[in-house]
Amino acid sequence: MNANTAVHVPATIIASAPRIDRVMVEERAASFSKRSLKKASKVRGLRLAISMMDLTSLEGKDTAGKVEALCRKALRPLDRDPSVPSCAAVCVYPNLVPVAKRELAGTSVQIASVATAFPSGLSPLSIKLDDVRRAVDFGADEIDMVIDRGAFLSGHYAKVFDEIAATKEASGKAHLKVILETGELGSYDLVRAASDLAIAAGADFIKTSTGKVQPAATPGVVLVMLQAIADHYRKTGIKIGMKPAGGVRHAKQALAYLVMVKETLGDDWLSPHLFRFGASALLNDVLLQLEKDRLGVYHADDDFSRD
Amino acid sequence: MKDASQTTGSLFEFGSKWDYAPAPEARDWVKIQSRYELFIGGKFVAPHSGRYFPTISPSTEEVLAEVAEADDTDVDAAVAAAEEAQRAWIALRPGERSKYLFRLARAVQERSRELAILESLDGGKPIKESRDVDLPLVCAHLFYHAGWADKLDLAFQGRAYRPLGVAGQIIPWNFPLLMAAWKIAPALACGNAVVLKPAETTSLTALHLARICQEIELPPGLVNIITGAGATGAALASHPRVKKVAFTGSTEVGRRIQAATAGSGKKLTLELGGKAANIVFADAPIDQAIEGIIGAIFFNQGHVCCAGSRLLVEESVAGELIEKLKDRMRTLRVGDPLDKNTDIGAINSEAQLKTIEGLVKSGEEEGAERWSAPCELPGKGFWFSPTIFTGVTSSHRIAREEIFGPVLSVLTFRTADEAVEKANNTMYGLSAGVWTSKGSKSFWMAQRLRAGVVWANTFNKFDPSAPFGGLKESGFGREGGRQGLSAYVEIDG
Predict the structure, then answer these.
(1) What is the number of structural domains in chain A?
(2) What is the CATH number of domain B277-456?
(3) Which of A9, A63, A50 is nearest to A282 (CA)?
(4) Which of chain B's ends, N or C, has fewer CB atoms near its CB within 10 Å?
(5) Which of B1, B10, B18, B129 is best to mutate for the A interface (most A CBs within 10 A)?
(6) pLDDT confidence of residue B3
(7) What residue in B sits closest to A40 (Cα-Cα)?
(8) Is the pLDDT score of A39 beyond 80?
(9) Of B168, B232, B163, nearest to B196 (Cα)?
(10) Please, which pLDDT band fits residue B32 given cuts at 50, 70 and 90?
(11) How confident is the model at residue A4 (pLDDT cuts 50, 70, 90)?
(12) Domain boundaries, chain B
């Protein structure tokens, strides 16, 4: 690729991204929460949601002890009921990947690490790539990168594109999730454009948010991103994954997102291979609902382990 | 379920990996009488003829109740009761009239759930719509007009006005209670009394509204509900002491009513059929336009006079759009109207189902290509799969005649001028939709489309403050807003 096409291709992707109508997209997004999920379908949905969770702890005060607890919770979310599935992954900072690796080696739970100067992404590329390589060396199976929103909003699409492509390369066999930080993009048009750009640059998953910015995942934003994935699949036959993160705290929200996935992308995406929830508080609410269904009464909060 | 991509040609598999369990709305607590009488002068009275007809649930063919059939004598009694009530009504202070109407609005709002269930049972529409669209709009219309009742000086901007007397109102079966509210609320707010005839397949919600009128002690005779079929409606429309006729229904019946009232001095408003163009430009937000297309034609099984039944799509995006539209149609859930997850309910009557089937057959015979969403239809009741026709030309019957069912005719265009020409090339003029990301193009189109309402990047949006009505053979007169009020008064000067 010569220098001219390197700039031209990303610009074309942005220019040809479909426009989004805010009113109608929000109306459609809200409609999914009106599906009434009862009995067996509710239980199946809740279990599916657990199996799709990236159980996350991304705090400055995270310690080995905290991450060990997180890993055990991900592996066996409800101590008293081994039939509850494990979460899909834990998501931690690079320095804590070795701890997670120790706890989870040989299990189905994947280790995701944020990298690329998370959460701002405002560091030199070489540092970001080094961050990625270290996380992979430590044993991360999945890399959650952030895009450089400053570059994106100032029109430097090629810079964003190239960084994603370079990160993909640095990730090697690890799966790449690209965080758009939709709360900083300001419009559905730009959420769609950024989704198209990230997919074209090599994202395996696109992800809404770091969880450090409000608003994080909203139904409208997630629907726009799912539609970008649908259009890419129509054009290329390639299935990209989706991860809403931040703001999904309640079982009811999780079920509404699963309805959205089912009715927008179909059965293939109802799987942790193609859909994840980035969450911390969500798991206990889902467990609360599952136990309520089993016992007919609600448990107290403290009947579930915090981590 | 088989691999969807093999059986139906979709790239996506909208299958049963995670299915929704049945979620039926409980109906047992809604008391349906075995027999309903006429509501005249504030009382439920037996019909003069002694005749009753059954009303069934179109989703199961179960007989729900039998309903009185009003004849000329009953119509006469209802008009007499209304005349007497109107004299007392107009003698009240406007603020008192307003209070009664607010009380009616609140009572209907409190009983919304019951009325929504009844509407879905008797008419076949999904509970999701009767609960979330019909009833909220019913209440909005009642509240809106209650607010006008003591502010009519503002509505008519200082000009002298007087009520007409008795309004005879004949309403259709597609939005039974909503049409009742559209008719009754402005009439009462302007100081009139009404005799209302619901459609014979959907009388129940109007009769429960009558019960509410009784319970809140609305002055007897102000609202009279007479049930029956075409003959009852004809007797009402041609009654000499009815001063105003308001009709919503088919263009064919509207013509007969206009002929019958000609020269009688009666005021008349008609809200009739439609064959609306829903126009999608290549620069439209396509995924949202898909939602708009679905809502425009499949809302209420397509039993909507302003339905977007002709899709005009710019040729350069037609292929992509139709593929997406079909995928979206695969996710529509057709079935039990009382299931909260049902998107498309039952066709309102066997007669209407036959009309739809006849027109669909003509589309196939004239060479258009039919595609129906793959879905299992219940064994009993009246059902029709969501259907689109591609390769339709302007001369096909399915492009010209109102189907009034879940059937969309797709035509293409190349330029905006051609879109306008095709959209206006119809005997109707009720509504139109325009989908584009360019605001200026929306306005350019709206100026040129001959339709009573033009929606831009949305469809089927209603508000009591927005006047609604048609051009050409879609009728005349407006309902809603200040314009709607003026149909119920005589204005001096």
Answers:
(1) 1
(2) 3.40.309.10
(3) A50
(4) C
(5) B18
(6) 38
(7) B21
(8) yes
(9) B168
(10) very high
(11) low
(12) 35-272+471-491, 277-456
